[in-house]
Amino acid sequence: MACGGGGGGNGAGAVSVDALRNQTSLAKNWKFVQDDNLTDTQALAASGTNWATVNLPHTWNAIDAATTAQSTPTTPDYKRGLGWYRLEFDAAAAAGKTRWLQFDAASMVADVWLNGVKLGQHRGAFTAFRFDVTSGLKAGKNVLLVKTDNSAAANDASPTAIAPLGGDFNVAGGLYRTVSLIETPSTAHIALDDLGSSGVFAKTTSLTGTSATVNVLAKLKNDSSTDGTYTVTASLVEADGKTLKKSSTAQVTLKAGQSAPLAQDINVDQPHLWQGLSDPYLYHLVVELKDSTGAAVDRVVQRFGVREMRFDANQGFFLNGKSIPLHGVNIHQDELGKAWAITNEDIDQTFAFIKEVGANTVRMAHYPHSDYTVQQADKLGVVVWAELPLVNATSKASLVDPETTGFAENARVQLQELIRQKFNNASIGLWSIANEVTGGNDARNNVQPLLKSLNQVAKSEDPTRATTLANQVTRNGDVVLPDTLTQTGYTDTYGVNRYFQWYYGTSETQLGENLDALHAQIPTQPIGVSEYGAGNAITHHTDNVFGGRVCSRDTSGFTRICYQPEGYANYVHEKAYNEIVKRPYLMGTWIWNMFDFGSGNRHEGDIGQTNTKGIVTFGRDVKKDVFYFYKANWTQTPVTYITSRRYTQRAYPVTDIKVYSNASSITLQVNGQAVGSKAAADCPLKVCEFKNVALQAGNNSVVVNGTHGSETVTDAVSWNLAQENATNFFIAAGGLTTGFLSNDPLLGQHRYGSDNFFVGGELPPITGRSSVGLTGAVAINGLGTTTIPETGRVWDMWREGNAFSYNLPLANGSYMVTLGFLEPTATANGARVFNVNANGANQIANLDVLQAAGARNTAIVRKFPVTVSNGRLLLDFQGVTGKAIVSNIAVVKQ
Ligand code: GCB
């Protein structure tokens, strides 16, 4: 039936890229109330005059679901419940036209009434939906009422017992995208009733060096009472919106009241391909429906990229036949103080960050993001992982088959909506059907049959794209076990969320080893790292990432500081990325996360209710150090950046200085003196390190110049070293964070540094990454108590071992050494007895802290003078019975 037509370069002729439909925004002047007790009947009767006036996008959770305020760590504080929206709007008479109400999203479940008549219900927080209001709209005033429900499902019968049932993110409620009224000129139209889709489904079915075939399926609907013959013209118009590239026209007979699909091929010579970041070329795809008189009765216009994507198990990702290692970021859809009610400008800003860092792929976690978001990915040229919100759980109760509750069916519909609504977006490379659903008893909840059925849905909706899912690590403590879900039949590709050196694992190479084992286990299935990262508090710093334990999240209820120094996050990323770049078989890798995001039951780092793994802060105001690590690696933009720059009140007179730079060479000056230089070859993965750089008392000006071709990029910071820290050492043994003022009843007020200058020894044992060290009150022998974390920060951690030492660089002279001890674990006198030597001479013999203090968790100090004559003080701790231990060290010039 298709009769190819049109031609290249002669002007679009009759093909217009202008909208033919009338789309009226209904974003303004809604009346809103959040009220869990209002009934449908009461709401229908309400005039809304007492309700607040709001504009869309709107959520009642803008503040409480997107805040960094500290709050109860276990209970999300944001309000989940019912939000009512009422809009009065005028409509004109529109005989012979078709009119549909479009909701771009409503969270999570929406019931909609027009003029008191129920239009229907939509269950799913992220996808668009429509209602036919051709007959329901009145000429003159109309009243639209929407009930949105984001209640946390109480049980499997709850209306909101749909995906997502779980997840480390907040589920804001309301009309957080927008609402509009679509009017087509006639009763025949390109389908508006197809799960919120455009009714047009285009795909590149063949691509050679010089030509491409684009298959365009249009779903058509004749809502009139008479049969009719129509023509459908599918065209590609160049990016200029004027020049027709190629059209194809076909005729179709649409019976009264019926739908019909019509597929046709557009054969394109010399297609201008969508080439990712380097050339994200987008045609206008125009599908026009004309009636038998030749009048255009409907037209759908979208951007479309001609491209072919492929994932290979051994070679990773290919775009148009060319290998492109995919490296990128995850994003959520919330912003500080706005939650999900973000604007297109906010999304533009998000993409400005993504562009700046140089990502070439984005995982839109953990649910369908807005059309506008995906359109920006199309335009920037980043490859998108799009995802169904099936996160963590498939039922509220255990041992429940999600097929019996409606959960599974709803998940399949949400997946169909996602795929149909985003089918034509060039950027989408992967349909993800789930995130981390194999934990707990989900295997017995029949999650595996559900995953198989979802994969089938995805493949039948869109055979051209690969499917995937993201799975968590299977492990026993730090021991990683073989992955589940790796047998064929689940998804084409397989993503793993991996947090070595954060939630588990202790080695820098474990990520790589784990990936290799997985690759060997499933050699024919492409695998990628769907998440990796580390919490990152921009006010926490460290002098030594090996000095103490990081806190992955706090579950103690604010009785400890949850240490997440920026320098530690830098270290995790550097090491993870080092493993990633060595593995070209990876189909893609995605940092968790581009931005800090709202997660109501978290307390970690220096903020509350927020997941701190962003490489940019929640408020988009600070690009954390690690942002520049990736920017230096991923872009050609000159980057010369001093890390740990926010560690301005320094603890030690010597420091390592790390610079992220893609310069050909850099030089370091401190206080005007040249300290050293590095060539690019000295900076693996763009990490340049200057070891043991001396700082002086007062302000230190640290300046790095990077030579980038003819351009010099200068970065400068100013770090302060208090006089007493310039000559003395105050070390919090076993502590990861540095530069904090401790005011201790026993030790006085000093600025302490993280554990550093040690050789050997061990950190407190891990009983879970969130419960390391002491909390609460520490008794001070004879001086009452000190409370962790308020005043007792130097007592919550320790270093212990059969033999360990501290090697301190000191000016020659006389010093007083003060060592702080407490016994955290031993229960019997004599269980731990040890010696301390200074520069080879014994100073403390056979110390039994428990016996000396009289009780566990009770602080004591021992002091002794030393003379330094060779520029170093060596403190040796040697176990006599059990391990030696120390909580803090002060070495003060006399
Ligand atoms: C994950 C989840 C993600 C969490 C992340 C984290 O594996 O998929 O939703 O936010 O870990 O930070 O723990």
UniProtKB/TrEMBL annotation:
Residues 204-307 form the Glycoside hydrolase family 2 immunoglobulin-like beta-sandwich domain. Residues 28-185 form the Glycosyl hydrolases family 2 sugar binding domain. GO terms for biological process: carbohydrate metabolic process. It comes from the Bacteria. InterPro entries: Beta-gal/glucu_dom_sf, Galactose-bd-like_sf, GH, GH2_Domain-Containing, Glyco_hydro_2, Glyco_hydro_2_cat, Glyco_hydro_2_N, Ig-like_fold. One of its GO terms (molecular function) is hydrolase activity, hydrolyzing O-glycosyl compounds. Residues 802-883 form the Malectin domain. PANTHER family: BETA-GALACTOSIDASE, BETA-MANNOSIDASE. Belongs to the glycosyl hydrolase 2 family. This is Beta-galactosidase.
